[in-house]
Amino acid sequence: MLTGSELLAKVKELGDVSKSELVRSCGYVSSKKDGAERLNFTAFYEALLEAKGLSLGEGSGKGRGKGGRTLSYVATVQGNGNLLIGKAYTALLDLKPGDEFEIKLGRKQIKLIPAGAEEE
């Protein structure tokens, strides 16, 4: 499996080929139990992002909720009108019980600013 600058060079070299052929040519292939070929798209795209200097934070577990699920960064207003953020997000931000925030309402956004902090 190609990584880093070798991966970027191969992707550039291959140009306009199908995604399956791109993944296969870069070595992101494994075998299923029945001997059939499995293309590892996720591993390929993670390696490609890393080669381009973007980190998904896999090592630290950031951006992951319970059970290793990726956080959706979407919240839903509950039937009682409450907006629940969730434990995974508060842990990601290292928030503790009792932390206070000032609520700033924008046209289409809500900002939570830690009490006593300067707004960016």
| Total beta-strand segments | 4
Strand content: 5-15%
Distance linking N and C termini = 42 Å
Note poorly predicted spans: none
Shape: elongated
Biggest sheet, in brief?
2 strands, antiparallel
Counting DSSP H or I runs of 4 or more residues, the number of helices is: 4
Side by side, the strands of the main sheet go 1-2
What Rg, in angstroms, do the CA atoms define? 21 Å
Main features:
29% helix, two-stranded antiparallel sheet, 4 helices, 120 residues, alpha+beta, single chain
Please outline what is shown here:
The protein is of the alpha+beta class and 120 residues long. It has helices at 4-14, 19-25, 41-51, 87-92; strands spanning 29-31, 37-39, 101-105, 110-114.
Give a description of the structure.
- It is a single chain.
- The protein contains four helices and four strands, in the order H-H-E-E-H-H-E-E.
- With 120 residues, it is an alpha+beta fold.
- Strands 1-2 form a two-stranded antiparallel sheet. It has a two-stranded antiparallel ribbon with strand order 3-4.
- It is elongated and about 55 Å long.
